[in-house]
Design a protein that fits this description.
about 50% strand, mainly beta, 1 helix, single chain, four-stranded antiparallel sheet, Methylamine Dehydrogenase, Chain H
Length: about 350
């Protein structure tokens, strides 16, 4: 169950401001640079210490827990994902089996329990689209939530232990991990909210699922933890990034990787097999040229567990989380691979939403 504390997916909110007030479709568009980022910390398994902070990009200062300050209570046990949809934030708290809807000040608007009778269904990852927030959960379903009244309006079965979730080309793509034994990504038609098919991928498609500039979905299968003394080398299945073509729904292998983020038609990749320390590296994979270039020296981190990119600046941040210690947000990564700044966050930082 320690796997709850590992994830970094790269979602962010972008503000666009037109340079002209006329109706010319060719008017230039300016992307307003982010000034801060909302930071989600999973917390320790069973510790009931999940938290939300805010990171100031110019000063590198980070706040205390905004959720606790706004609500006079803790967020709960094992916060897994956060997205901003419209003006609201949505947070899944897996251990507490709930989804929390928050305003801009992190004040609770509504708490939605994820239960089937007396059994917690443990929500995991989200995607917001067309007035709905879609949520994977360990009951094997995607749940649809209407963002106008925060009610559950439907569920669809997709497979065992669905995790990372993306939306592209009218479809939802859910990694069905099977708690380490799965090898499919479920495809759900968003408009009809029905499952269409399963795509076969490598073993254990887990938390990572992003949509790149080419319109395709990129996921990571964690494999079977290659190098484990329990395995014969001939049976190793390495952690691998795969591309799902959203027109054909065909999956192809891209490169080895564990955590990914995407920006400017590139993938930013951290790779490490726990039992094979020589595999550790951080690199940039160019989706157009299919080439790798080094990003930074991964050996400077104790245990890198996630990577995010600020979509308004292109700045790269890596989360370093040594066992039993608060996580460190490391970044931005400079052009020469050095780290501009390091700041302590909460336990097991998993995501930054840049604003």
């Amino acid at each position: 169950m320690k796997k709850y504390a590992i994830y970094a997916l790269a979602l962010a909110a972008i503000t666009f401001a037109a340079c002209s007030e006329d109706d010319d479709d060719n008017s230039p568009v300016v992307i307003t640079p982010s000034t801060s980022a909302v930071v989600l910390n999973t917390g320790n398994w069973g510790g009931n210490d999940a938290s939300i902070m805010r990171y100031d990009i110019s000063t590198h200062a980070i706040t205390a827990d905004l959720y606790a300050a706004a609500n006079n209570e803790g967020l709960g046990d094992l916060a897994q994902d956060i997205i901003k949809y419209g003006s609201k934030y949505y947070v899944t708290v897996t251990g507490s089996s709930k989804l929390v809807v928050l305003d801009k000040n992190m004040k609770v608007i509504k708490t939605i329990p994820f239960m089937k009778g007396e059994t917690p269904t443990q929500p995991r990852y989200m995607a917001g689209v067309n007035g709905n927030v879609y949520v994977t959960a360990y009951d094997g379903c995607i749940t649809r939530i209407d963002t106008t009244n925060y009610s559950i309006t439907g569920t669809v079965e997709v497979g065992a232990y669905p995790e990372g979730l993306s939306y592209a080309n009218g479809k939802l793509y859910a990694n069905c991990s099977g708690y380490g034994a799965g090898n499919t990504v479920a495809v759900v038609d968003e408009k009809t909210f029905t499952k269409k098919k399963d795509i076969t991928v490598l073993l254990n498609p887990y938390t990572e699922s992003v949509v790149a500039d080419d319109g395709n979905v990129y996921i990571v299968s964690n494999g079977n933890y290659a190098g484990s003394p329990k395995l014969d080398p001939a049976d190793y299945v390495y952690a691998t990034v795969q591309r799902i073509d959203t027109k054909t729904d065909e999956a192809t292998e891209v490169c080895r990787g564990t955590f990914i983020a995407t920006y400017n038609n590139k993938l930013y990749v951290l790779y490490s097999e726990y039992y094979l320390p020589d595999t550790k590296k951080a690199f940039v994979y160019d989706l157009a040229t299919k080439t790798e270039t080094p990003l930074t020296d991964i050996s400077q981190f104790s245990s890198p567990v996630g990577i995010n990119v600020d979509p308004t600046r292109g700045d790269i941040y890596i989360f370093d989380s040594a066992w039993g210690s608060p996580a460190t947000i490391c970044g931005p990564v400079k052009a020469d691979g050095t780290i501009a700044n390091k700041v302590a966050a909460g336990f097991a930082t998993v995501k930054m939403i840049f604003e």
